[in-house]
């Protein structure tokens, strides 16, 4: 047996020796075929002794781990040698997302269960190295789009930050790595004018036809359209008002819209008002015939049971409408692309980006340009067009040989 700098060490002879008061101990564990280093952290409120252990193939490795552990303790952390990445992620999902949407938590959990836990879950959090994370991220490059890759990294980083705030670990190793570029994501699409006209004629008289007309010609988000009630629809207003829709709700938590500026009232084209009037009259007849009570608080696009439709239900019916409209690739379209089509049509017809941003409920043009950059005409082309109008005739005259005037 020997003592090294206040640490009691037992040789691998199978005999154990109790460490003196205040000493850390290193001993051989035959069952693990490893040296074990132990540090006492006092007692729990229940009176149970708290000891943190580290393992190593050699005493030197264990001593190093014990030194690192003491640095953590000096920094105020109380790390556990057995606390894993999987535990950190589970703790963050359970306790670090209070007040968040259940759908968002579900998305985070699915990403973690698919891309983090199977690969890093068993790793001890305090031993996790940046090189390991680099290898993990590089392996994900071929299977995840860049945005998904960033989300997965963010889940890990936020999970470790949550562990830091609870003194489970000192450093956040996820902050030390850069997220590489993933595979190209699925590009958004927009309908051409011909496609848009075909879509507006398909399944006339049905609820999905009314939904498509509203979404394509007014530009509301899918999550804003599903909770709309007839009290939000002003399709027969006074003479001084245009038909309009109050986009004041969404399917988000507490019914709030995505942002403050997303809460808006939008004028609707006469075509939309006409379609909605006919659809409303039809809905009232069906409701009355079934013995139901129809009010202005009724949903505009309800299920047969009068409940709000799911996004999956709307998407399935939308793709059926596209098939009727002659689309061979109907399965590749989503309802959100009605909104990108709305932006594209407005941009193609010269509507300024500032106006488009305000109509679609963005807080500024930066969001509009970033999200819909493939649907927008470059704003800087307006300068070139203006210069053609200002100097075009003069340049043309000079080129034709006419003398310049002084």
Please specify the SSE layout and strand pairing.
Layout: E1 2-4, E2 7-9, E3 24-29, E4 34-43, E5 49-56, H1 59-74, H2 85-95, H3 102-115, H4 117-120, H5 130-140, H6 146-165, H7 193-201, H8 207-218, H9 222-225, E6 233-234, E7 244-247, E8 264-267, H10 270-289, H11 311-324, H12 336-348, H13 353-360, H14 365-371, H15 381-399
Parallel strand pairs: 2-3
Antiparallel strand pairs: 1-2, 3-4, 4-5, 6-7, 7-8
Short description:
Helices cover 45% and strands 10% of the residues.
Give a verbal description of the structure.
The protein is an alpha+beta fold. The chain has 15 helices and eight strands. The chain has three domains: about 1-75; about 85-175, Tyrosine recombinase, N-terminal domain (DNA polymerase, domain 1); about 195-370, Orthogonal Bundle (hpI Integrase, Chain A). It is about 45% helix and about 10% strand. A five-stranded mixed sheet has the order 1-2-3-4-5. The chain has a three-stranded antiparallel sheet with strand order 6-7-8, with no helix packed on it. β3 and β4 (about 35-45) form a beta hairpin. The relative contact order is 0.07.
